[in-house]
């Protein structure tokens, strides 16, 4: 029995490699949709999070500390809670129900962007706050307005910003719970790598699940390696 199970796993492993090597259309379609959704979500989170993170670093206002505490607490936000919140927003009875976003890539992008947003805000704040502490006074003495000084700080901390964006992308691409709730895992429409892996494994179709797993792990390793390289480059420049 054990030998038969090992043979089955081995067969699935080699079948998965064949799917990746030959560019199986279904596999490529799932990968393409995953990348489109996660990259778009990361872009949205990056744009909003960079502005908010920088503002929290250079401006002082009542409630700022409380906001920072909330942002850092949201780093551990359960994905299913985000999925539920987005579902309630875009469901037929929700405030955005008329837009017909439920079980579409747009709803999945919204869920992933909400998960990635606290990451970008927190990491951009840390980068900007450090540079503002070191160079903020000098920039202000030179006559730079706070928005202009913020742009200078972001240029100085570009390696840290890229790390923030890569971390946010890693969070988005690996997500399954939230996008399953709002996307529905519809074949050819909202099926991503993570939701497909979960489905195919539950059905016993290990070849496609493993093939997608290989690609997902490769992406995760690539993102991690790039973030590590950027951090080393930033340390050399200090």
Query: What integer value in Å does the Rg equal?
Result: 21 Å
CATH topology: MetI-like fold
Q: What's the main sheet like?
A: none
- Under CATH, the homologous superfamily reads MetI-like
> How far apart are the termini?
59 Å
Bulk shape? globular
**Approximately how much beta-strand content do the residues carry?**
under 5%
Give the topology string: H per helix, E per strand. Answer: HHHHHHHHHH
- In the CATH hierarchy, the architecture is Orthogonal Bundle
How many H/I helices?
A: 10
- Count of the separate structural domains: 1
Number of strands: 0
Average pLDDT number: 89
Question: Low-confidence runs (pLDDT<50, min 5 residues)?
Answer: none
Structural class of the secondary structure composition? mainly alpha
Q: In which range does the helix fraction lie?
A: over 70%
Describe this structure in words.
With 238 residues, the chain is mainly α. The chain is 80% helix and 0% strand. It has 10 helices and no strands. The chain has helices at residues 2-22, 25-58, 64-73, 79-90, 105-141, 146-156, 158-173, 177-183, 193-203, 206-237. It is globular and about 70 Å long. The termini are far apart.
């Amino acid at each position: 029995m054990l030998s038969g199970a090992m043979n089955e796993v081995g067969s699935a492993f080699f079948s998965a490699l064949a799917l990746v090597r030959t560019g199986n259309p279904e596999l490529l379609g799932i990968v393409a949709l995953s990348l489109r959704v996660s990259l778009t979500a990361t872009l949205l989170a990056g744009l909003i999070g960079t502005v908010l993170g920088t503002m929290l670093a250079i401006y002082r206002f009542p409630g700022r500390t409380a906001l920072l505490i909330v942002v850092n607490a949201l780093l551990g936000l359960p994905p299913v809670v985000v999925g539920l919140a987005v579902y309630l927003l875009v469901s037929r009875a929700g405030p955005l129900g008329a837009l017909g976003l439920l079980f579409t890539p747009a709803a999945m992008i919204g869920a992933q962007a909400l998960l990635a947003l606290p990451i970008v805000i927190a990491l951009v704040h840390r980068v900007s706050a450090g540079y503002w502490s070191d160079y903020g006074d000098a920039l202000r003495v030179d006559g730079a307005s706070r928005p202009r000084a913020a742009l200078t700080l972001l240029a100085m901390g570009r390696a840290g910003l890229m790390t923030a964006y890569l971390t946010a992308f890693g969070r988005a691409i690996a997500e399954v719970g939230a996008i399953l709730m709002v996307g529905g895992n519809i074949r050819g429409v909202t099926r991503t790598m993570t939701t497909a892996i979960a489905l195919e494994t539950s059905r016993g179709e290990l070849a496609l699940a493993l093939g997608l797993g290989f690609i997902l792990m490769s992406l995760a390793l690539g993102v991690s390696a790039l973030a590590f390289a950027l951090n080393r480059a930033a340390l050399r420049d200090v």
